[in-house]
Amino acid sequence: MDHEISNCLREAPNIGKAVFMEFVYQVTDQSSFTGEEYTLQRKTKATFVTADMFVLTFVLLFLQTAATTAFTVSTGSAVVNVPENQGADLKCSYTADFGTPRVEWKFKNLQSSQILVVFDDKPTAKYENRVELYKDGLRFNKVTREDNGEYTCEVSTSQNFGEVKINLVVQVPPSVPMCRIPTSVTTGKKVLLTCHDKDGSPPCTYKWFRNKVPLPEDPSKFPEFKNSSFTINPKTGDLVFPRIAKTDAGDFYCAASNGVGAPKSCAPVRLAVNDVNTGGIVAGVIVALLALGLLAFGLWYAHRKGYFPKKTESKPRVVYNQPSSDYGDEEDGEFRQKSSFVV
Fold this sequence. Notes:
Number of helices: 4
Radius of gyration: 49 Å
Largest sheet: 6 strands, mixed
CATH class of the largest domain: Mainly Beta
CATH superfamily of the largest domain: Immunoglobulins
Shape: elongated
CATH topology of the largest domain: Immunoglobulin-like
């Protein structure tokens, strides 16, 4: 048995993995080894497995590194925040295996309309005097709020392609929002209050106030608003009362903010909530009926008194014809009709 083990150990470095595994299986199945021989067998097994796993791990890491670094396009910042009227750099780098690729930049605005910024290695007409292209990116000399949106850097050769997307956020402070607040409503009606700022970038969020107290988005969580029923959408600025009550009356205004500059508010407007005036409605109906009745009586009375003209009877029309000059004289001995009379 010692001779067999020695031969296997001498041949182990030169045999394949499948043969080596078979050898280990046969040896561990034997039960007649001494403790010393068994120890030698375990050390040899550990040495071979460790060397084999090291080679396999090295190959896998090499392949993974090659796959992840080949033809890669990247950016230093996927979101770029810049104040309006300032310059901005959009970074776009690519690996050397691209060689000398073709680089194009595309822009998609907030309305999802897409245009070219750089084509054929030069800015398009709209951006000709505003941007410049360099090896690792695109530079804006001065950005405006119209530049808000998503920019795509595309790097390509005849056989390879890569791209990266960058969001440009042009920071613009909010202006005074436009608020639509009714001045008088009836209890039980659905009432909508709106608030919107057209200038803020990034888009503003909105907060509503009643009598200088901020209204929560969920009134059910606050005891002082437990009798109120309203919803607030902080992104659109809508304040909705599904069934407004008299306790909801007050001075309302809205504030817009986006983290750039100070928040801006519209002027407060008094919202009055009135009960339904049932007596006034009934009185109005009675007055309308009385007016219709008086009108009908006046028409009947005028007709009875003959104030309206009566219809005239038609007479037959009489047509007279003058005698024609073609008729002969009576001296000719012939009868000629001098005139005609038609009734």
